[in-house]
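#lab-general

N.A. 3:47 PM
ok so I finally got the sequence cleaned up, no stray characters, all 110 residues accounted for. can someone with queue access submit it? mine expired

B.Y. 3:52 PM
send it over

N.A. 3:53 PM
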Amino acid sequence: MKDLFRSSLLYDFYGQLLTEHQRDIYEEFMLEDLSLSEIADEHGISRQGVHDTVKRCDKLLEKYEDKLQLVKKFEEIKGIVSEICDLTNDTKDTDVKQIRKLAREIIENY
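B.Y. 4:20 PM
back already:
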């Protein structure tokens, strides 16, 4: 399940960098949950061709992430914002300083 979630995140961030043909096949396989045979019939290619396209897309999306790190940064920001939310549940004055520090970290690094 984690791989599917990661693949979905990578596609959300970098899917537009794939060709239209790659996007169509990848979406049908990953998002619409069509079988290799169904996709192959629809596109007039072999099941192996669909499989190869999906694997190639996975590799490309991972390559984009290795270079751009957008998903990693997104997850870091989510963690920081989550911590801010936790701190704001308790309104102690000492927490306000930590909230300011985290907010500055977001502004400076992201």
